[in-house]
C-alpha cells in the first residue's frame, strides 16, 4: 500500500501509515525504514535518526540504512557518529561511493587529512569519473601539504601539491563550469608557489657562481609559473562566479606574489597597483568584511592606506588579531615602538597562536635589552607556529646572542630558511655559523661560499662589509676544517682588497702556522699587535693574547716569557692578558712571571673572571706540585675546596672539582665528585667548565664501586661512600640526548650507565634490548673512525659493552667477535688487557679451554694498571685451573699494589678477600679465615669483609666444635652491626646463633628480633618465621609483663610455623614441628 501511495505522490499519507504502524508495533521495522528515508528526504534529521536506529535493529546488514543514518548524523553535526555509520555501510558494501566521499569530507573538516585522502582514493578506485571524489582528494592533498609545510617538510608538501594540481586540473575537464574547482586549483598553485623549495644540487654550487645564479633563476621561474597559473585559475573562477568577493582577494594576493618574483618589477607609488585594485574589487562587493580590509592593508604600498585599512578592519571587528598584528608591524616600521608594542600585545592576548605578534615581541624585547633568552624564546615560538624564512633568519640571529646557535631548533629553522630564501646572503651566512657551532666545518665552508654567490647575484646592493664578514667566516671555517691553504688564499684576497681586519689577521696567522710557515705567521701576528693603536690597547687585548699564544706554540715557553716581560705594564690590566700570562706561568717551573701574574690578578673585578682565575690557579698547582709525569690532584682539589667556600654557586669551580676528584681514582672520591655538581634540568649544554655537570654525574655513577640500587631485591648497601646521585644520571642523560641527538658523548655515557644498571639488576632482558639498540646506533657512527686516542677509547668501551651484552644474552659468537674487534684497536696494552679478559670469559662459556689458555697468557703478557683486571684474572685462574710457567700473576698484582698510595690498604684487603673466596671454593676454610682476617685488619670499617670473616668462623666452629672461632665470629659480626650503613640481613641471625651456642640467651633473643627488622617485609625468608617460632616458645617459658610487645608475641607458635611452611613447603623439618604442635 505504501508503494502505491508513494507512486501516486501521496507522501504525507505514506508518512501517516508508517507512523501508525510504528506506534502500534515496535517491531514494525519496515515502517521505521520507510519513515526514516522519508524524513531524510524532508531534512527532518533528528526524527530521521530515531527512525533509522529502530529500523537498523531489524535490518542490521542493510547498507542503505547505515548510509542514511550517517547522513543524518552529519547534518546534525555529530561527525564521529556519522563516520562510524558510513564506515559500517562501507563494511557491508565496499562500493558505496557516497559513504566514502562524505566520510572523507568529514575527516577533512576535522583536520584528519591523511585518513580523508585514503577515503577519497577508495572512492576514485570505484568511480574514476566522480567529480566529488576528485575535488575531495585534491582538497585533502592540499590540507595534508599545508601540514607538511608547517612542519618544515617543503619538498614533501610540494610533491603532494603536484599530485593535487593534476587532480584539480582533471576535475575541470569533468566539470569545467564549476567555479569552486577552478578556485581549488588556484589555491593549490598559489600554495605551491609559496612553498616550492630551492634545492642544492650536490656541492657543485658552492664554487660555481654561474650555476648558483642559474639555480636561483630556475627556482624563481618555477614559483612564478605556479603563481601565474593560480592567477589564471582564479580569473576563470571569477568569470564563472563574478559575485564571489573572496576571489578578488585571491587574485590580489597572487598578483602581488608574481610582482615580487619578477626581478624587473618596479612599484609606482603614484598609481594604483593591480593587487590594490583587486582588493578594492572585493571590498566593493563586501565592504563590511574585516578580513578584506586587512588584505588591502597588507598588499598596499602606501603606509597611510595601510594604516587606514587595518584600523577600518578593527572598527568592523575589534577582536581581529591579525589586524592588530599587522598594525603593530606597520608602527614598528615607522619607529612608533610604543604603539607597536601595544598592538602586538593586543593581538597576542586575542590569539596566542598567531606567529607575527611573537616575532614582533622578540624584536621589541631585544631592543629593550631584557634577559638573553626572552627574545629568543619569543622568536622560537613564532617559528614553531609559522616557519617563515624571515622569522627563521631572525631566530638564528638571536641565537648568536643567547648562546643557542648549536641547538637543533635553530639548525632545523635555518636549513628551512635556506630552502625558502636562497637569494638572501644572510640565510647562507647564518647557516654556516650554525654548522660551525656544531663543529661541521666542511658544511659551514660550503654555506659561506653559497653566501658569496648570493652576494654576486645582488651586485651593487650589498655593502663591502657584508662581503668581508662572509669571507672571514669562510677563512675561519676552512682553517678549522684543516684546509689551511685555502684559508690563507682567502685572507690574501681580502688583504689585496684592503678588507682584512683584526679577526682576519688572526685567522691568517693561524693558517700560516698550520702550513708550517712559522716566521710569516709571527710576522702577521706582530702586524696585528701594531694595528692596535696605543689608545685601543685595552680593547685590543685579544690581539695581544693571540700573539702570546702563537709565540708560545712557535718559539717555545722561554721566548713567550721574554716577550711578556718586555710588554708595558698597563697591558696586564686586561683580564684576557692576565689569563694568558697566568696560563704560561702555570707551565713555567722557574716562576719568572710570578710578579707579573700577582700584579695582573689585582685588576680582576667580575665574578666570571675571578672564578675563572681560581680555576687556572688550581690547574697551576696541579702541574707545579706534581712530580715527573704525574699531576698532583690533591693540591688542585684543596684549592678548589677553598675557592668554593667563597664562591659556592660557581658551576665552573664545581665541575672542575668533580672532574679532578674522578681523575684521582681514589676509593672515596667518586661519591664526593657527584655531589659537587649542580644539575640544570633545563639544559645540560649551558653548563660551564671543562666537563658538563651531567657528564661528571654520569661518569661518577659508573665509577662508583658500591651498587646503589633503590630496589633491595638486587642488593643491600654496605659501603658508606656511595654515589647517592647515581639514579639521577640516566634520566639526565636521556634528556640531554633528546635535546642533542647528534651528541656522541651523551649516547656514550648513557650506554655506560645503562650497562651499570643492567649489571646491578642481573641483566634483565628489557635492559639488554635497550643497550643493543643504543650500541647499534653508536657503533654505526662514522665519528669513531677517527684515529684520535679519545675516539678510539670510546669505541673500545662500546665494543666491550656490546660483547658483554651478547655474552649475557647467550650469543657467544657475537661476544667473541666484538671482543676481537676491540683487541685490535690502537690503544695501550693496559686497555687491551680487558678485551682479552672478556675473550677469556666468552671461551670459558663455550668450554673452549685451549683458546681460554691462550687469552689468559695474552692478559699476562699485556698487563694492566687497573686493580680490577688482576682480580678478575685471578678469579678466572682459580675457577678454570689455568696454569703458567711462573707465578707471574701473583708477582704482577703485588707489583701493582706497591704503586698504589692512598688506597693501598683497601686494595690489599680486596686481594685478600679474593684469596679467601678462592680458598673457600677449594674447601680450605682455615686459609680462607686467615686471608679474611688479614683483610679485616687492613680496613677497619668495611662491613662486608667482617661479614665474610664471621661466616667463615661460624663454619669452622661447626666443623671443629671450637669456642675460639665462635668468639672470633661474634667479634666480627658485632663489628658489622656497628659499621653497617643499614641493618644487613643474615648478620643478626648468625650473631644470634653464635651467642646462643655460647649460652648467652638474652643476646640470642635480642639478635633474632634485630634480624626480623633487618629484612624488608616482602623478602623475609621461611627460616626467619621458623626462628620466630623458637623465640615465641622461649618467651612463653619465661614470660613477663613486657613480652606481649615483642615481635614473637604477634602470632602464635603454630601460626609462625604455618607461615614458614607457606614460604617453603618442601622443608620436612617445618612439617615435623607442626605435627608436634597439632598433637
UniProtKB/TrEMBL annotation:
Protein keywords: Repeat, TPR repeat
TPR repeat ranges, renumbered to this chain: 29-62, 63-96, 97-130, 321-354
Pfam families: TPR_16 (PF13432)
Domain of life: Eukaryota
InterPro entries on file: Rhodanese-like_dom (IPR001763), Ski3/TTC37 (IPR039226), TPR-like_helical_dom_sf (IPR011990), TPR_rpt (IPR019734)
Cellular component terms (Gene Ontology): Ski complex
GO biological process: RNA catabolic process
Domain called Rhodanese: residue spans: 10-54
PANTHER family with a match to the protein in the record: SUPERKILLER 3 PROTEIN-RELATED (PTHR15704), SUPERKILLER COMPLEX PROTEIN 3 (PTHR15704:SF7)
Protein name: Rhodanese domain-containing protein
Species this protein is from: Liquidambar formosana (Formosan gum)
Amino acid at each position: 500500500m505504501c508503494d502505491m501511495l508513494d507512486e501516486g505522490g501521496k507522501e504525507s499519507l505514506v508518512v501517516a501509515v508508517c507512523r501508525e504502524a510504528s506506534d502500534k508495533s515496535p517491531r514494525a521495522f519496515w515502517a521505521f525504514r520507510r519513515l526514516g528515508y522519508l524524513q531524510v528526504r524532508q531534512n527532518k534529521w533528528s526524527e530521521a535518526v530515531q527512525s533509522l536506529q529502530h529500523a537498523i535493529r531489524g535490518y542490521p546488514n542493510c547498507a542503505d540504512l547505515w548510509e542514511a543514518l550517517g547522513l543524518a548524523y552529519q547534518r546534525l553535526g555529530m561527525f564521529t557518529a556519522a563516520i562510524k555509520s558510513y564506515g559500517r555501510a562501507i563494511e557491508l558494501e565496499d562500493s558505496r561511493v557516497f559513504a566514502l566521499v562524505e566520510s572523507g569530507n568529514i575527516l577533512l573538516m576535522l583536520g584528519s587529512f591523511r585518513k580523508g585522502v585514503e577515503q577519497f582514493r577508495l572512492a576514485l578506485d570505484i568511480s574514476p569519473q566522480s567529480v566529488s571524489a576528485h575535488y575531495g582528494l585534491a582538497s585533502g592533498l592540499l590540507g595534508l601539504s599545508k601540514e607538511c609545510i608547517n612542519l618544515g617538510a617543503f619538498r614533501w608538501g610540494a610533491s603532494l601539491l603536484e599530485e593535487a594540481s593534476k587532480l584539480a586540473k582533471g576535475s575541470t575537464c569533468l566539470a569545467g563550469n564549476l567555479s569552486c574547482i577552478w578556485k581549488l586549483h588556484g589555491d593549490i598553485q598559489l600554495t605551491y608557489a609559496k612553498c616550492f623549495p630551492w634545492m642544492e644540487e650536490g656541492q657543485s654550487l658552492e664554487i660555481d657562481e654561474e650555476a648558483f645564479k642559474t639555480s636561483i633563476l630556475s627556482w624563481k621561474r618555477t614559483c612564478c609559473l605556479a603563481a601565474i597559473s593560480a592567477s589564471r585559475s582564479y580569473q576563470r573562477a571569477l568569470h564563472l562566479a563574478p559575485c564571489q568577493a573572496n576571489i578578488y582577494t585571491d587574485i590580489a594576493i597572487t598578483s602581488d606574489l608574481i610582482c615580487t618574483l619578477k626581478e624587473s618589477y618596479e612599484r609606482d607609488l603614484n598609481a594604483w597597483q593591480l593587487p590594490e585594485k583587486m582588493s578594492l574589487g572585493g571590498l566593493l562587493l563586501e565592504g563590511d568584511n574585516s578580513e578584506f580590509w586587512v588584505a588591502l592593508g597588507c598588499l598596499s604600498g602606501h603606509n597611510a592606506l595601510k594604516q587606514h585599512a587595518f584600523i577600518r578592519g578593527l572598527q568592523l571587528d575589534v577582536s581581529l588579531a591579525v589586524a592588530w598584528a599587522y598594525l603593530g608591524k606597520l608602527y614598528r616600521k615607522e619607529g612608533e615602538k610604543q604603539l607597536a608594542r601595544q598592538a602586538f600585545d593586543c593581538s597576542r592576548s586575542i590569539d596566542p597562536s598567531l606567529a607575527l605578534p611573537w616575532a614582533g615581541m622578540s624584536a621589541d624585547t631585544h631592543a629593550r635589552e631584557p634577559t638573553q633568552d626572552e627574545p629568543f624564546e619569543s622568536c622560537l615560538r613564532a617559528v614553531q607556529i609559522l616557519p617563515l624564512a624571515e622569522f627563521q633568519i631572525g631566530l638564528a640571529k638571536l641565537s648568536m646572542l643567547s648562546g643557542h646557535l648549536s641547538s637543533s631548533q635553530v639548525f632545523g629553522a635555518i636549513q628551512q630558511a635556506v630552502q625558502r630564501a636562497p637569494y638572501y646572503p644572510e640565510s647562507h651566512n647564518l647557516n654556516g655559523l650554525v654548522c660551525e657551532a656544531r663543529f661541521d666545518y666542511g658544511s659551514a665552508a660550503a654555506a659561506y661560499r653559497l653566501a658569496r654567490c648570493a652576494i654576486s647575484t645582488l651586485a651593487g646592493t650589498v655593502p663591502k662589509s657584508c662581503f668581508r664578514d662572509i669571507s672571514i667566516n669562510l677563512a675561519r671555517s676552512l682553517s678549522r676544517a684543516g684546509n689551511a691553504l685555502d684559508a690563507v688564499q682567502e685572507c690574501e684576497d681580502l688583504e689585496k682588497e684592503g678588507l682584512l681586519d683584526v679577526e682576519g689577521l688572526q685567522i691568517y696567522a693561524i693558517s700560516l702556522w698550520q702550513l708550517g710557515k712559522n716566521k710569516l705567521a709571527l710576522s702577521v701576528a706582530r702586524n696585528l699587535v701594531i694595528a692596535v693603536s696605543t689608545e685601543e690597547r685595552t680593547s685590543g687585548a685579544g690581539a695581544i693574547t693571540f700573539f702570546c699564544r702563537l709565540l708560545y706554540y712557535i718559539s717555545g715557553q722561554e721566548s713567550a716569557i721574554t716577550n711578556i716581560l718586555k710588554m708595558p705594564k698597563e697591558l696586564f690590566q686586561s683580564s684576557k692578558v692576565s689569563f694568558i700570562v697566568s696560563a704560561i706561568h702555570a707551565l713555567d717551573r722557574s716562576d719568572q712571571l710570578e710578579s707579573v701574574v700577582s700584579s695582573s690578578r689585582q685588576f680582576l673585578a667580575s665574578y666570571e673572571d675571578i672564578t675563572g682565575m681560581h680555576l687556572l690557579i688550581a690547574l697551576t698547582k696541579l702541574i707545579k706540585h706534581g712530580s715527573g709525569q704525574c699531576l698532583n690532584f690533591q693540591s688542585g682539589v684543596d684549592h678548589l675546596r677553598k675557592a668554593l667556600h667563597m664562591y659556592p654557586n660557581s658551576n665552573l669551580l664545581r665541575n672542575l672539582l668533580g672532574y679532578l676528584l674522578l681523575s684521582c681514582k681514589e676509593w672515596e672520591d667518586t661519591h664526593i665528585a657527584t655531589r659537587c655538581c649542580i644539575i640544570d634540568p633545563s639544559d645540560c649544554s649551558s653548563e660551564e667548565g671543562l666537563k658538563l655537570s651531567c657528564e661528571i654525574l654520569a661518569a661518577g655513577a659508573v665509577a662508583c664501586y658500591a651498587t646503589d640500587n633503590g630496589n633491595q631485591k638486587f642488593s643491600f648497601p654496605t659501603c658508606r661512600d656511595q654515589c647517592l646521585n647515581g639514579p639521577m644520571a640516566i634520566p639526565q642523560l636521556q634528556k640531554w640526548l633528546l635535546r642533542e641527538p647528534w651528541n656522541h658523548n651523551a649516547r656514550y655515557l648513557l650506554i655506560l650507565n645503562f650497562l651499570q644498571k643492567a649489571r646491578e639488576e642481573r641483566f634483565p632482558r628489557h635492559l639488554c634490548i635497550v643497550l643493543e639498540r643504543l650500541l647499534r646506533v653508536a657503533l654505526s657512527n662514522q665519528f669513531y673512525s677517527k684515529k684520535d686516542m679519545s675516539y678510539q677509547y670510546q669505541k673500545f668501551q662500546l665494543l666491550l659493552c656490546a660483547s658483554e651484552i651478547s655474552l649475557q644474552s647467550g650469543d657467544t659468537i657475537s661476544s667473541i667477535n666484538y671482543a676481537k674487534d676491540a683487541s685490535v684497536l690502537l690503544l695501550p696494552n693496559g686497555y687491551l688487557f680487558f678485551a682479552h679478559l672478556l675473550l677469556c670469559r666468552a671461551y670459558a662459556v663455550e668450554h673452549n679451554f685451549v683458546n681460554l689458555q691462550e687469552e689468559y697468557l695474552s692478559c699476562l703478557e699485556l698487563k694492566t694498571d687497573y686493580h680490577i683486571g688482576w682480580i678478575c684474572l685471578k678469579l678466572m685462574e682459580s675457577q678454570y685451573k689455568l696454569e703458567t710457567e711462573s707465578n707471574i700473576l701473583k708477582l704482577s698484582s703485588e707489583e701493582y699494589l706497591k704503586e698504589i698510595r692512598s688506597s693501598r690498604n683497601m686494595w690489599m684487603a680486596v686481594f685478600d678477600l679474593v684469596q679467601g673466596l678462592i680458598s673457600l671454593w677449594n674447601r680450605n676454610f682455615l686459609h680462607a679465615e686467615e686471608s679474611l682476617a688479614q683483610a679485616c685488619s687492613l680496613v677497619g670499617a668495611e662491613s662486608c669483609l667482617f661479614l665474610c670473616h664471621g661466616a667463615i668462623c661460624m663454619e669452622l666452629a661447626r666443623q671443629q666444635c671450637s669456642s675460639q672461632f665462635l668468639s672470633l665470629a661474634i667479634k666480627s659480626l658485632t663489628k658489622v652491626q656497628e659499621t653497617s650503613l643499614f641493618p644487613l640481613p643474615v648478620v643478626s641471625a648468625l650473631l644470634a646463633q653464635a651467642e646462643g651456642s655460647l649460652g648467652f640467651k638474652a643476646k640470642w633473643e635480642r639478635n633474632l628480633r634485630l634480624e626480623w627488622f633487618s629484612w624488608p617485609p616482602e623478602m623475609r625468608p621461611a627460616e626467619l618465621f621458623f626462628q620466630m617460632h623458637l623465640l615465641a616458645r622461649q618467651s612463653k617459658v619465661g614470660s613477663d609483663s613486657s613480652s606481649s610487645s615483642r615481635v614473637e608475641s604477634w602470632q602464635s607458635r603454630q601460626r609462625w610455623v604455618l607461615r614458614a611452611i607457606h614460604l617453603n613447603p618442601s622443608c620436612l623439618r617445618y612439617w615435623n614441628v607442626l605435627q608436634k604442635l597439632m598433637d
